[in-house]
Each structure stands twice: as structure tokens, then as C-alpha cells.
Amino acid sequence: MNNISIVILAAGKGSRMKSNKAKVLHNISGKPMLYHIVKESLHISDDVSIVVAHQKDAVIAEIKKHFSNINFIEQDDINFPGTGGAMKNVTPKNSHVLVLNGDMPLITAEALQGFQDTRADIVLSIFDLKDPSGYGRVKIEKDEVSYIVEQKDANVYELAITHVNAGIYSFKKEVLEKYIPLLNNNNAQNEYYLTDVIKMAKDDGLVIKPLLVDEEHFKGVNSKVDLASAEVIMQERIRNRWMTNGVIMNLPHTIYIEEGVKFEGECSVENNCRITGNSVIKNSIVKSSSVIEDSTIIDSDVGPLAHIRPASHVEGTHIGNFVEVKKSTLKGVKAGHLSYIGDSEVDEGTNIGAGVITCNYDGVKKYKTKIGKNVFVGSDSQLVAPLEIEDDVMIAAGTTVTSGKVPKGSLAISRTKIRFLEGFYYKFFGKK
Ligand code: UD1
Ligand code: MG
Fold first, then answer.
1. pTM of the predicted model, to two decimals?
2. CATH, domain 4-212, list 3.30.200.20, 3.10.150.10, 3.90.550.10, 3.40.630.30
3. Which of 52, 184, 288, 337 could cross-link 304 (Cys pair, CB 3.0–4.6 Å)?
4. Which residues pair with 148 in a beta bridge?
5. What whole-number distance in Å separates Cα of residue 7 and Cα of residue 73?
6. Could you read off the pLDDT of 267-300 as tens digits, one per residue?
7. CA-nearest residue, atom 30 of ligand 1
8. Phi first, then psi: what are they for 237, rounded to 5°?
9. Rounded-to-integer distance, Cα 324 and Cα 212, Å
10. Domain segments of the chain: what residues?
């Protein structure tokens, strides 16, 4: 839609978040709030701008990681604080301007459609809340908006209004050009409020229409409590999308899946799993209480209670309970119980016994372990890296391999000979 420009306000401090991090950079489903808004905005406009000030370098850097076609506009937040101040340097290309608060991560392109369908000088999103606290109250008379009053400036009658400003507006460009320079900061917060444009425009006889929207898409995030409840909604969307695409989930409300994760083929995910980053799960089962971070799982079963850490590739493999894999490639492997496999490559037909540990760290540097085909690694072995175990090797249970290399076809065994001290038990504990 090219007669619409979008401006996202992301310059505020977000002090109610009680955090050193800019509010708009707090994550929902693994991506900053602002990322979600930008992604949806680009579906409806080719002129998307973000207003920045507080922690602007961090905000710009984060957005540039994901998008290349965004304009950044700097707010003079010292002299012109507030959402109205944020609009001072905005010069949109198109005839209509959609202004979005940067703390509305649940917005979708579809939900923004109503702003294009409603004709007026200003359209503003409202919802009705039993508990309107925190939001600006919207005075509506004869189906038109008269003014918005912020909670901190409202009298008792206005505080009782349950229509609240959701924080998205569509303006004709000339309305912004006329009224933004006229804003003042005579209010409880000494800020320039974008919402004051409404009253001035109304007094001049402009048409200001309310657009009733749902909280599920238009919820503003101001605190950590809001962040958590927005996450619940976003997670439900992500899970429903994948279930609609054929993924089986047991007790889906207990499963956390980040926005970058992809499923392909026939997959199922059991309760309490967490799958993050850009993980790809293809034709695999992720059993209960497993964590998969930024890894690829193909034709495999993982868990219950397994931890696959970033940059792992697990293919045609069985990973059982209490197995941790980090930055490793496992193809056609069985690792059924209680293992740590880090910085490793493990090849086809290899069995990793219970309690096997790759010792990849000497306290200073990390080292690699390479295990060939059809290797049988006995239980409770320590594989001290750097190490290469060639094909068709047996490692006896309880062996500590420190040799750097184990040649093809051999048995590696390091054990002290077992001794029996007759009657020792009775000497130690006495006779019962
Ligand atoms: C704002 C509205 C309020 C509405 C609510 C909906 C105003 C004055 N109030 O209040 O009526 O009910 O949103 O969620 O607009 N920002 C800047 N520069 C600033 C200050 C804020 O860019 O100087 C940005 C913030 O980064 C944020 C957005 O504007 O993304 C909204 O700011 P916030 O402080 O959350 O406004 P609210 O108090 O929630
Ligand atoms: Mg807000």
C-alpha cells in the first residue's frame, strides 16, 4: 500500500520496565518487540521510519541486523520529550501516516487494515477496558473523538472513562504538519503529547473517528508484567501456526517456540519443551522437557530432558535423557543417556554409552573431538580433546582417553586391575 507512510515511536526510556535496556529491545518470542512491529509494517508500507533517541545506537544496530530498508529519525528528547516531541522531525513521503507506538509487539498487518478502511482526518485505535489504568482515556461524543486525556492529567470523571487510546493513529499528512508544531508541554509530565493533536484538530472541525480494536493485537507493553502477558499471546500464535501446518504438540500451552524456529515434514513436540533461535526441526520428535537452541534436528528423536545447545546438527540420531550436545555434528548416532558431547563430530553407526564425557576445555581453550564410524564408546569414558577416534574402535567402559588419537579397529582400555581384599568389609564396619 503505497499511499501510507508508517512511523514507529521507539525513542522513549520505558522507565516502567525498570531495566537498563531500552524498552523496545526487550524480547518477545526471541526477537525484540520492535522487530515484530517493523516486520508487520513492511507488509503494508514501503516508507517505514523509526523514531529513536534513548539508546539509539543499540536500537539502530538491532534493527539493521534484520532489515535494510528502514529510515531512522532522531528525536530531540531533551528539548521535546514525549510522543508529540517524537514526531517533530518526521517528514513522511505519503499522503497518509500511520503512527505506531513501539511497544505494541502484538500488532499484525491484518489488524492495521481497519485504518485504511476508515475515512477521516484522523483515525485512532481505541479499546474498552474494565481496568483502563495506565492508558490515555478517550472522550467520544456522537461517534467522534473529542479529546484524549492521559491518566496523569485526568480528573475523576475522566479516569472513569473505559474507552482507552490503544496507541495507533492514522493521520492525513497535512494534519500532522499543521498541529505537531503547535503542541505544548503544559501537562503533568511536562511532555509534548501526540494525543493533544486530537483536541486541536477537533476544535478546528476536523473529523476524528475511533476505530474499535481488540487488546489481543493492540496491547501496549509498559512493564515486565505486560511483557509476560504479551508473550503468552505471541506464543499461542506461533504454536497455532505450526500446529495448523501439521506439527503435533502435547499440552501446547507448556511449549515455548521462538519466532525464528522452523518445522518441516512430520514433527511432534511433547510438553515443556523450549526451542529457540533459528532452529530447524525436520521429521523428528522432541520429547518432553527438552531444550533445543539454534540447532538443526533431522530424522531424529531427542529427549526427554535433553539439551541441544547452539550450532549443533543432529541427523538420523537418537538422543536420550540427560544428554547435552554443544556445537557438535552427530549423524546416525545413538547417545541414549547422561552424556556431554561438545565441539565434536560423531559419525554413523557410533554408540555413545551412558556417562560419556568429551573433555573439551582445559580451562583456557576449547578443543575438538572427532569420532569415526561404528565406534563403541563404553559407559563412563572420558574423551580428552583434542582427540580423533578412527572408525571401528572400541573404548572400554571407564576409560580415560588421553592419547590424541585412537587407531582404526583397536580397543582402548585404561583401567587399574581389580583387587579383592578378603574380609575387609567386616574389618571396617565390624560384624553385624
Ligand atoms: C501512550 C499514549 C496513551 C496510550 C498509550 C497506549 C501519549 C501521550 N500517550 O502512553 O494515550 O493510551 O500510549 O499504549 O502518547 N516514545 C518516544 N519518545 C518519547 C516518549 C515515548 O518515541 O519521548 C515512544 C516510546 O518508545 C513508546 C511510545 O512512544 O514506544 C509510547 O510511549 P509510552 O511512554 O509507552 O506512552 P504511554 O504512557 O504508554
Ligand atoms: Mg506505552
1. 0.93
2. 3.90.550.10
3. 288
4. 138
5. 9
6. 999 999 999 999 999 999 999 999 999 999 999 9
7. 102
8. -60, -45
9. 49
10. 4-212, 224-412
Q: Is 337 one of the catalytic residues?
A: yes
CA of 3 to the centre of ligand 2 (A): 27
Q: Please give the single-letter amino acid code of residue 393.
A: V
Residue 75 Cβ < 6 Å to ligand 1: yes
Segment 185-244, tens digit of pLDDT:
999 999 999 999 999 999 999 999 999 999 999 999 999 999 999 999 999 999 999 999
Question: Does any ligand 1 atom lie closer than 6 A to the CB of residue 84?
Answer: no
Find the ligand nearest to 12 CA: 1
Best probe residue, ligand 1, of 36, 74, 83 (max atoms within 8 Å of C-beta): 83
- The single residue listed with the C-alpha cell 486525556 is 149
Of 3.65.10.10, 2.160.10.10, 3.40.50.11260, 2.40.50.140, the CATH number of 224-412 is 2.160.10.10
